[in-house]
Design brief:
This protein has about 260 residues and is α/β, with parallel strands linked by helices. It contains seven helices and seven strands. Strands 3-2-1-4-5-6-7 form a seven-stranded parallel β-sheet, with helices on both faces. The chain starts with 16 loop residues before the first strand and ends in an 8-residue tail after the last strand.
Length: about 260
């Protein structure tokens, strides 16, 4: 099934059961839509009580409310999915975007819990269902990492520490769960347009230097991240596990 948003790649996820956390906007929404358009049965999570509380049309998905800072809520969502082939750990946001200071130890801890601990908790909660998957190429977990996984970005010490931890987490889980036919990888997203990054993208003081360093000559769009995620969970990537793929227009390799 071809997807016109990419022109030539073709993914067939007919019958696959997919969970995308934070699937109501940005990278999560683009990823959920890509799986849905490729035939998958997609569940998304968001923080609001119901799908009807969003302006976007979410009727093509099963919707579950989830606060990824709540361990009990993560366990409840994971336990509600007896069948699962693919988990995309995407939910979260940089706390400075809502005016919080991650240099405050309590806010730092929230950031790590939101982006790293929650990814492990959700993976653990979904392990049983994933281990029973008959997905071609194996069941998959994909975590969304960041350029802050590689570089120190001063305003987000907690977010950056958590996103750096994601790289280690995928290596450990890939090593431990490979015997259960579960592959674990990550994508490290460059600056990608979303609600969370709007202030950065729309501020030339931040966006212009990033753009000048990016060989591809543009900032990212959510679909730029969704495509590589679908590849990593496909049979074509069946021998890829424990890896983090930078998806950044070449930012990490430019001087």
């Amino acid at each position: 099934m071809a997807d016109a948003r990419w022109g030539n790649p073709s993914f067939n996820y007919s019958g696959s059961k997919v969970l995308v956390t934070g699937g109501t906007s940005g990278i999560g929404a683009a990823t959920a839509a890509a799986y849905r358009d490729a035939g998958a049965d997609v569940t998304i999570t968001g923080t609001r009580p119901s799908a009807a509380d969003y302006d976007e049309d979410l009727s093509g998905y099963r919707y579950l409310q989830l606060d990824v800072e709540d361990a009990d809520a993560i366990a409840r969502v994971g336990g509600s999915l007896p069948e699962l082939d693919i988990l995309v750990n995407n939910a979260g946001f940089a706390l400075p975007s809502i005016g919080l200071d991650e240099y405050d130890p309590e806010i730092f801890a929230r950031a790590v819990n939101m982006h790293l601990t929650s990814a492990y908790r959700m993976s653990h909660a979904c392990y049983g269902a994933l281990s029973k998957s008959q997905q071609p190429g194996g069941a998959s977990i994909v975590c969304v990492a960041s350029m802050s996984s590689y570089f120190g970005i001063g305003i987000v010490p907690g977010y950056g520490a958590a996103k750096t931890g994601i790289l280690g987490l995928v290596r450990v889980l890939a090593t431990q769960w490979g015997k259960d036919n579960i592959r674990v990888n990550a994508v490290a997203a460059g600056i990608t347009r979303s609600r969370m990054t709007a202030d950065t993208v729309n501020n030339p003081a931040y966006a212009a230097p990033a753009l000048a360093r990016t060989p591809a000559g543009r900032l990212g769009e959510p679909n730029d991240i969704a495509g590589p995620i679908l590849f990593l969970t496909s049979e074509a990537a069946g021998w890829v596990t424990g890896q983090t793929l930078p998806v950044d227009g070449g930012f990490t390799v430019a001087g």
